[in-house]
Amino acid sequence: MSDFYKEFAASKTHVALGLGLAAAFAAANPLVLMCAAAGYVLGWVYLPTSKGFMARIQAKLELADKVAQNNEVANFQARREDLLERLTPENLDSYNALARTCSEVARNTPGNLLINGKLQELLWAYLKMQAMRQGIETYLAETDEADIARQLATVNSELETLTEEQHRLRSSKQSLRDTLVQHQKSLADAKENLLVLTSELTRLEHEIQLLRADAIANRNSDFLSAKINASVESLQESKSILQSMSNVEELSLDIPTAAGTLDFETKPREKAEKLKS
Q1: What's the angle, vertex CA 128, arms to CA 137 and CA 105, rounded to 5?
Q2: Which contacts qualify for 7-13: CB closer than 8 Å, 24 or more apart?
């Protein structure tokens, strides 16, 4: 109810009542001032809760909420397209295949926005993990592990030949050795993370394929909703695993509540199409 009073305070009707009261003060006529004051008070008492005013404000609030939801969905679509544009053709094919599977599940549960929203959440998690895995693969491909090992061996040999008087050079070489050791550890972590991500992606692919089988075999939306909820809950385990990794960003499941209205099979922007050509 307080929202209606706030809206009334900012409305043209309130401004008009306020101007009328101010004019009555300026007129310095007691009767006019009394009538204006009474009208102002009655306006505050009755107008904010009148059916017409409440209906108008309710429509305004609903429109503002719809605009906000549309903006959230548009921002989500932009983030999704940005990730899709970065995928290699092979990864994009894998994503599109899983998106088609989600579309098939949705077709077997027509109009169920709750199920569609959960499917979008699973597909978004898959895309995020794909992007993470691709980033690690790029890092490993661009890093010469053998060269790092050679440099470390060389530095260790040089440290054995340095005298105590060469303390500045020794300090520099020790720092270089520590950095190379950290680089080796980073590579080892990246390799393990790559295996974990690949395992999680494969598990998610099978989760969604099983949902497709359930949707075809059992068209009960409550049954399928329970299955999807279990799959989404399992993502929390994935999130905990991924948060413990180095070299990867946090798995974010921040999708808008209205994402269930979106299509699963998206058409990436021009850059992603060029990747496939």
Answers
A1: 125
A2: 7/48, 7/57, 7/60, 8/44, 8/47, 8/48, 8/53, 11/53, 13/43, 13/47, 13/53
In one-letter notation, the amino acid at residue 138 is T
pTM: 0.68
Give the up-direction half-sphere exposure of residue 143: CA atoms within 13 A in the CB hemisphere. Answer: 18
Q: How far apart are CA 89 and CA 92, in angstroms?
A: 5
User: Distance (Å, rounded) from C-alpha 132 to C-alpha 122?
Assistant: 15
The Cβ of residue 175 has, within 10 Å, a number of other Cβ atoms equal to 11
pLDDT digit string, tens, across residues 119-165 = 888 899 899 889 989 999 999 999 999 999 999 999 999 999 998 88
What span, in angstroms and rounded, lies between the C-alpha atoms of 200 and 251? 12
